[in-house]
Design brief:
110 residues; mainly beta; three-stranded antiparallel beta sheet; four-stranded antiparallel beta sheet; Immunoglobulin-like; 7 strands; elongated
Length: 110
């Protein structure tokens, strides 16, 4: 069956329905980029900048495919050893006991 120009079926059966539309405003967030690590690009080790030292206790290193390559529950010496990583871009996820999280992408290049 097909609808005619009035929205009725060819047999005279008309169902009333209303279509309403609305827009949703998504909040915009200011992205305050903070470089947590240095040097970038990294060679064998990444250091956490002094002003952020002690803020985070655990970390994960994630590759571009979303695989967690390694994690640690202890952020020793406010540094992450990257010597086992091949050249590329990685994501570092930092967290602490209070639920504070931070992400940063880093480049490893030798």
């Amino acid at each position: 069956m097909h609808l005619d120009e009035n929205g009725c079926f060819g047999n005279g059966d008309c169902d009333e329905f209303n279509i309403s539309t609305s827009t949703v405003d998504f909040p915009t967030y200011e992205k305050n980029r903070v470089d947590l690590f240095f040097p970038i690009p990294a060679k064998d080790i990444l250091y956490i900048r002094k002003q952020y030292a002690g803020m985070f206790s655990t970390y994960s290193v994630i590759d571009m495919y979303g695989r967690t390559l390694f994690s640690s529950l202890n952020l020793n010496n406010n540094s992450i050893v990257t010597e086992q990583l091949t050249n590329g871009v990685y994501f570092i996820h930092l967290s602490n006991k209070n639920g504070k999280n931070a992400w940063q992408n880093v480049v490893v290049q030798r």
